[in-house]
Amino acid sequence: MEGQRHFQRDFTKKGMDEELNYLLDTCLLIDYLRGEPSVYNLLVNNAEIKLSMSTVTMMELTIGAFNKREVNYIQKAFKEIDIIYIDRDISKIAEDLIIKYSKSHNLQINDALIAATSIKMNIELITYNVSDFNFIPDIKLYPFVSKN
């Protein structure tokens, strides 16, 4: 797709003192659980980058599990990924986004909270679903393009 970057080619250190930090969208973690090789490469073979997820993402993954065993598997699979919890600032940003974009762009609460987390933490959101967020002016998006 034109304008999208392929994930494996783009990660380069910004500077010696600057840590690469990214927020993962739920869709990527679902694909990891499904065994998608390019997402596996992102999560396992890039030790130089810091990966985070919103607590909303962990809740979405938990809701999608079929049973307690799958919940335990999800928790173990993502134990190395930092979870960013919702605070007052994230809540306020999300509320503002919902007021502004829920009717015009069908922005959902979960996506508003994930977007607000990315904005507040000033980190790029890695997602397949760019169209769910690209109308939000302050968000930094990193379009993920799978090899497959």
Task: List the main descriptive attributes of the protein structure presented here.
alpha/beta; Rossmann fold; 148 residues; single chain; 7 helices; disordered N terminus; five-stranded parallel sheet
Taking Cα atoms only, what radius of gyration do you get, to the nearest Å?
A: 15 Å
Number of DSSP helical runs: 7
Task: State the helical fraction.
Answer: 40-55%
> How do the SSEs run, as a string of H and E?
HEHHEHHEHHEE
Provide the domain count. 1
The CATH architecture can be named as 3-Layer(aba) Sandwich
Adjacency order of strands in the biggest sheet: 3-2-1-4-5
CATH topology: Rossmann fold
Shape: globular
Largest sheet: 5 strands, parallel
Overall pLDDT confidence = 88
What is the number of E strands? 5
Percent of residues in β-strands: 5-15%
* CATH hierarchy class name: Alpha Beta
Q: In the CATH hierarchy, what is the superfamily?
A: 5'-nuclease
Unreliable residue stretches? 1-17
Description:
With 148 residues, this protein is α/β, with parallel strands linked by helices. The protein has a single domain (20-143), classed as 5'-nuclease (Rossmann fold). Helix content is 45%, strand content 14%. It has seven helices and five strands. The chain has helices at 7-10, 26-33, 37-44, 55-64, 68-77, 88-101, 109-121; strands spanning 20-24, 49-54, 82-84, 124-127, 141-143. It has a five-stranded parallel sheet with strand order 3-2-1-4-5. The longest helix has 14 residues, at 88-101. It starts with 6 loop residues before the first helix and ends in a 5-residue tail after the last strand.
